[in-house]
Every structure is written in structure tokens, then in C-alpha cells.
Amino acid sequence: MLSDDIQFLKGVGAKKAEALLTETGIKTVEDLLYYKPKRYIDRSSLFAIIDLEPDQKATLTVTIEKSEIVRAKKTFLRLIVSDETSSMNLIFFAGISFFSKIFKNGMLLSVSGKVLYSSGKFSMVHPEYDIIYDDEDKQSLNTARIVPVYPLTQTLKENGITSRSLRRIISTALDSYFDKIHETLPVHIIQKFSFMSLADSLKQIHFPDSFEYLAKARERIVFNELLLFQIYILLNRKINEKEILSESFTNTDISHFLANLPFSLTDDQLSAIKDISKGLESFSPMNRLIQGDVGSGKTAVAAAAVYLAHINGYQSALMAPTEILAKQLYENLKKLTNGEIPLILSTSSCGKKERSSIEESLSNNEVSCAVGTHSLLEDYVRFKNLRLVIIDEQHRFGVNQRSKLRSKGKIIPHLISMAATPIPRSLALTLYGDFDVSVIKSKPANRGKIKTISFPETKINSVYNSVRKYAAEGRQIYIVLPLIEDNDKTELASATGIFEDLKTRFSEFNVAILHGKMKSVEKNEVMDKFKSGETQILVSTTVIEIGVDVANANVMIIYHAERFGLAQLHQLRGRIGRGKFDSFCVLIHPEKISETAKERISIMENCSDGFEISEMDLKLRGHGELIGNKQSGFLSGFEFFDISSDIDILKNAREFAEETISEIKAENSIDIEKFFSNAGKKGMRMKIIQRITSDVYS
Q1: pTM above 0.90?
Q2: Which CATH number among 3.40.50.300, 1.20.1740.10, 3.30.160.60, 3.40.50.150 corresponds to the domain 255-440?
């Protein structure tokens, strides 16, 4: 069975099995077969010795002519090997005793490595090798083929687990369990998409016969992965639609809320509020995703939803990923609702007395909305009448966390998730199929423009001259760095290093520092002083990336901009341009950077639309922050899916998932175990099976 423990595989044992479980989560044979190589090395092309050139990487088939231990300044084992064209040396400095025993004269080897040339002779030092036997079953795993390289931690290496040993272990597992890898898809689907069988796909993922076969194998595995995900979200939607609320929101009049706002909402904001109002009027719990570019005004939309819950006599909860953001949302909600809605703030900084007060006020329905961080998930946060849950920066939370907050309602509350990392709408509808999607693209009219420019780090003094000018005019400045402290292993500038420099350089201004290692109380104090204008220059790491809103801050300098992805650069830039003054984002980079980094910086200089940037990011980088942790928690994450290249597979998986769900609805019975068997990692599969059987067939 594929559920067999890997410790019983040849070459594993209890110690290595424990290390693999701890470091990679691999426990069963199935886990092992789905362990994705991080890259491949093409060693399939064979060279003759006479055709070698210095410094090239080459694979050869050679015969051992002589083996000798050379005792020079440093002792080493030398193998003199030859082919039909010439001879060369293979040199081993380590493992001399081991290699001298296994390498015998006349033995045929396949070797791969970097070619060196000295004293008229070619050589390789510690090449990869395979011993070629007459027995055809003894296949090369490390040379003369496309070779997988696996992600390894130091702990794995210390336990004797290398890419070489993993190849041997996985090869053993494939030999022993190949016939036990059962097909999961109906024949008509396999024929429709010309899919490779699941068993062959797993074999080709690890030991591809060609890159063409590897691509076909990967396509099949990706389809399986996406099919599970799509079935989950479609089932989740179906299950959600089956839930019946005892009461809907009968009052969706927001005229009073709009009249008290100090500004007018954009058409996109009003459209999103209309979508929310319609969902709140339904007797089924709403699942709505608000996709909004940075600075597009998602908080005002959330405030309108909180207002609607309040006037209908219900409670709401708004959860944010950081204490800084939670506190800011709390303050903004008070302003946007004109102080008319009873609010509380719950964070990890709350003491015992505050927690007791929160528990009492919520359970007695004295408070209409609780704003907080993960602390809202704690047991002391008990609602009397929770009917609306809002998750800000939803990609920072797993499915389980969102579900836990919703479970605090006596009936399933409506859910609004907000995301400031835009992805194309068509992709959002496919990835977030259990959500209805509203998009906010336009920004409030009272915002200044943001100009983005870049400079090599040699121009930093000129940039600082501009900083002094803007600070003297009363503007505030962010200076962002990738590291907190200096590191001997890198030449990257750090927040603490730049902070010490700027305190002296700008002694006439207040300069502060903010980073993730500071205590919550310290971070709050720093941000309060920056918001009030007491601090003019804030040196920070990327902790300001999400949600920080200071209207008077209109200059941002990002050090080592070449190290950041487009999505993160756009998020950081979104911290400025929130007031009436025009803003400037300055990207600092070394003189020499890669072509990809140049392209990212050029995109940032010429584009301000987050949705356009997300399209470009797909092409440049693939998945990552674009998806975030949508699939974390209940689903452990995509391993093979690449959002930049697999959109067609995603659409096909979506189509088949819809067909499958329709089949379940029509027949009300299906062989779930047969359908999903070996479709993905066993833990993921069994959870989905359990979810289907318990929720669809109950």
C-alpha cells in the first residue's frame, strides 16, 4: 500500500525516516513519490574524452584502467579511465577508503562533472558517477540522463540524506510500488486531454526520459493537484449555499452612513457595497472577496458593511494580520462611522482585565464590532449575535483560521475577505471559486499622484538632499530596507545600520526605526509618533507593507529594490500617495543588476495599476504572493502548480470539477475513495474525502 511507512524501504531505516518526517513531512511511500524535485540537471548528452574542453560540464562513459592512492601534499585517490578516444583522471580527496573498495579495474562508469585541464591531461574532481552493470535493471540514476535535484536541509544532510541517496530511495519505491499506483481519472478524461497515466507521471517526474516526457508528467500531476483544489472550493460553495440563516438583513439603507463621510465614495466602492448589501439580504451565508488595489479604499467598504450589521442589530468581527493594522482599522472605523457604532480592539497586548471586559461586552451585545488580530480566535472572545466576519489581507490567514472565527457565530456568519494583492479577475474567479468577487480599481479623487524613479546606490547622497528638502517642508518619509541588522554573509544595507547613519545625517529631524523584532508596545509608539507628525523620517523593514496609512507621508525610498518582487514593491509603494500632495517612490539598486531586476524596476517606474502589475508579475515570477495562503490550512499548498504557465490546466480542472460536482448532485452517490485514490498527498486526499462524505452526504 502507498500508505506504508518509508522507514521500511531499502536504504531508509528509522533514523532517516524520522529526519525526513521532521524536515519535509514525508512519512509514507505516497508522500515520497510526490516529493517535488527543485530542479533538473541535463546529463543526457554523452561526450568523448577527445572532445572535452576545459571548464565545461560533461557526462562520459569510461572504463577504469588503473586505481591508485597518491600520497602527495594532500593524499588522494586517482582513477585513470579511458574510452575509445583517449584517457583522463578522476580524482577523489574524500572517502578514499570507500572509493578504493568499490572501484575496480575494468569497471564501466558513467561520470558527470566539471572538466579540468592540467599538465596535458583532462580530469574531474569528485564527479557524480554510476556503475554500469551488465544487468539491464541496474539503471543510471545520477548520470547519463536528466537528473533530479531535491530540496535538502542541513539536518537531512547531517543524517546522510543527499539528492543522490534520495534518488536511490525513490527509485526503490517506484520499483516496489509502481503497480500499486492506481489510476484516479475516468478514461474519457485521460483520453480527452491525452494524459499520461498517474503511475508513469510519477516515474517521469523523478526520472524523466526527456524534457518532453517531464512536461507531460508534470501536466498530469498539476491537473490532479488543481482538480482536488477546485472540487474543494466548489463543494465548499455548495455546502455554504445549503446553510439557511434564520434571518436576513432587512435594512440595507446606507444613506446615513454616506452622509456622515468626509468624502465621496468612488463608483467601484459603491458597487462593492451594493454587492455586499445583496449578499446580506440573502438567507444563505455570503462569501465575498473584495479585490482592491492598494489605496483604493477597501476600509470604507468594510465600514459600510459593519454599519449595516449594526443597524440590523447584529455583531461583526474584523480581523487583521498585525497589531499595527488592527489598531489603524479600529481608529479608521471610529472615524468612518462617526463614532456611532460601539467598537472594541482585541490584540495580543490586551491584559487580563481588558480581556475580561472584551468578553463581557461582546457576550452581552454591548459592542457591535470587534476589531483585532489573531486574538479574536481566542476563547475569551465570545459573541452573542455574530452575523458578519471581515478578514483584511485575507491571504495572510489560513482557511482554518477563517473558519474558526466564523464558528463563533451561532449560525454561519456572512464572510467578506479583502485582498490588496490584485490578481486578474478571471484567475480570481477560478482560484477563489467559493467566493463571489467584487473589484475596486479606481482610487479616491482626493489623492495626489505617485511618481516612481530609480537610482543606483552611488546617487544616494543626491536622494538624501531631496529628503532634507521635503522634510523641511513638513512632509514625512519612509526608508525601507530588506534586513533588520547587518549580516557578515551579505553586503545588503540594514535598517539598524541606515538608522544610525541617518540620525547623524538628519540630526535636525526626528528619525525613528521600526522592525519585526520590536515588541508590540514599541511598534505602536513608533507608529503613533509617525502618524502625529512628531517623527519625520521612519526607517523600516517591510513591516509597513500592509495597511499603514499616514496621509502626510509622501516620500518612500526602497533600498535594494532589485531584491523585491513586483507585488511587494507595489504594496510598499501603496503606503504613500494617501494625501493631497504628490508623492515620490525612489528605488535604490546596485550599479549592476540582473535583466529581470531591471525589467521589474522599469515596470514599477511606468505602471501604477496593481492589476496590470499582477499580470506582468505572472509572466516574470509565477506564483507566490499572488496566491498567498488561499490554499493554506485545509489545503497544504500547491507544489507543482505554476500560476504563470498552468492557467489552461487550471481551467480544464475547473471544468471537470464542475462536472464531478454535478454528478454528485444528480446521483447523490459516488465512489469517492476510488475517484480520489492517489490523486494527491494522502493527508490532503483523506481530508477532502472526509469533507465530501460528511457534508455532502449527511
Answers
A1: no
A2: 3.40.50.300
Q: Is 75 helix (H, G, I), strand (E, B) or coil?
A: coil
Report yes or no: 218 and 678 within 8 Å, Cβ to Cβ: no
- Letter string b/e over residues 630-645, b meaning 16 or more CB atoms within 10 A of that residue's CB: bbbbbbeebebbebee
**Could you tell me which residues come within 8 angstroms of residue 581 by beta carbon, excluding any fewer than 6 positions away?**
448, 475, 552, 554
- Per-residue cell: 186: 475516468
The domain covering 450-621 belongs, at the CATH homologous superfamily level, to P-loop containing nucleotide triphosphate hydrolases (3.40.50.300)
- 45-144: which CATH architecture? Beta Barrel (2.40)
Taken in order 600, 605, 610, 611, is the CA torsion positive or negative? Answer: negative
Separation between Cα atoms, residue 238 and residue 135, nearest integer Å: 56
Q: Cell 517606474 appears where?
A: 605
**Alpha helices in 148-291, H assignment, sequence order:** 154-158, 163-177, 187-192, 198-206, 211-242, 255-259, 267-280
CA torsion angle 251 254 260 261 (round to 10): 140
pLDDT digits (tens, 9 = 90+) for 33-74: 988 898 888 888 888 999 899 999 998 989 999 999 999 889
